[in-house]
Amino acid sequence: NAGVTQTPKFQVLKTGQSMTLQCAQDMNHNSMYWYRQDPGMGLRLIYYSASEGTTDKGEVPNGYNVSRLNKREFSLRLESAAPSQTSVYFCASIPDSSYNEQFFGPGTRLTVL
Amino acid sequence: AQSVTQLGSHVSVSEGALVLLRCNYSSSVPPYLFWYVQYPNQGLQLLLKYTTGATLVKGINGFEAEFKKSETSFHLTKPSAHMSDAAEYFCAVRKGNFNKFYFGSGTKLNVKP
Lengths: 113, 113
Fold this sequence. Notes:
- The structure holds 2 protein chains of 2 kinds.
- By secondary structure, chain A is mainly β.
- Chain A contains no helices and 11 strands.
- Chain A is globular.
- The mean pLDDT of chain A is 93.
- The termini of chain B are far apart.
- Chains A and B meet through strand 4, strand 5 and strand 9 of A and strand 5, strand 9 and strand 10 of B.
């Protein structure tokens, strides 16, 4: 049982490049989340998916797209990376809406030059 | 609007001293409240949570927090700090049955020998 996994762990992009951050969970959880963490700002919600086939915007969705491919996987795409998207990205999941504890992945550290 | 305020971005205590990390929230309905800990280069780990019932909540590693509705606070305490407690701590709130979680900006705890 690996929990929540994220790939890659580190990535450096040039401005304008695109990439997809992958997240998968093997706990049969319904809801999944993408956050970004910036110094002094805590975690801010980018997008979340309450269940397979649904996605919704969080606090800072601009410049990002998401795909809930199936129950296990929730990917985050940067179509045209900008330096302002340099951050640490965390994926999280919860079993269902009645559950409160979020389970976090180890994070992806992204630098955009 | 939902918000979480953590007073003090950095807190420094001596080993063996009391740890007090402050968290205040704003919510028009009783919230669900959480404290998470993040060790360097790792994801977030749940320390403790308040949902309903007893307002004094005990968590892992000797931490506890008290929900005070009248003060809209959920401060984290530990009677005696240990070197291994050095980390960043995040307060978070979930409002009712919504699937969104809101995080504070974090407090870095330094423990001096």
